[in-house]
Amino acid sequence: MRIYIAGPMTGLPDYNLPAFAKAKEVLDALGHEGVNPGEPGVIDGYEWSDYVRDGLHLLLDCEGVALLDGWERSKGAQLEVHIARTLGMPVGKLVDWIMSD
After folding, report:
1. Any residues with CB less than 8 A from the CB of 83 and at least 6 apart, and which?
2. What is the mean pLDDT of the chain?
3. Positions of E strands within 2-96
4. Cα gap 28→17, rounded to integer Å
5. Which residues contact 95 (CB under 8 A, 6 or more apart)?
6. Cα(66)–Cα(58) distance, rounded to whole angstroms?
7. Spatial separation of the C-alpha atoms in residues 41 and 54, rounded to whole Å
8. pTM of the entire predicted model
9. How many helices (H) and strands (E) does the chain have?
């Protein structure tokens, strides 16, 4: 299953990219395809809306969403969760995906 990783980035050290990379590693090891919206890293000239737009494109090709800690405090992750739930995708904390396998 292709699982999108959603969580906070803005204002966190290294934009929380290590947590996204670790989540992808864990999901991949479980036989899923983890989709890390942070893989491109920081893109020169990008604004918040550009990152959200790119993330939403990735989300639409996925079948579920794994949430990182603190996702509730992220405007982008809240938007991603809203869209995923509206589309009927399963959404759960990363640990829930780990425990379900």
Report:
1. 56, 59
2. 95
3. 2-6, 33-35, 64-67, 91-93
4. 16
5. none
6. 13
7. 12
8. 0.95
9. 4, 4
Retrieve residue 20's tokens.
């996204």
HSE toward the beta carbon, residue 48, CA cutoff 13 A: 9
Please report, in angstroms and rounded to a whole number, the separation of the first and last CA atoms in the chain: 12
**pLDDT surpassing 80 at residue 101:** no
Looking at CATH, the fold of the domain delimited by 2-100 is given as: Rossmann fold (3.40.50)
State pLDDT tens for residues 35-70. Answer: 999 999 999 999 999 999 999 999 999 999 999 999
Domain positions in the chain are 2-100
pLDDT in tens, 24-42: 999 999 999 999 999 999 9
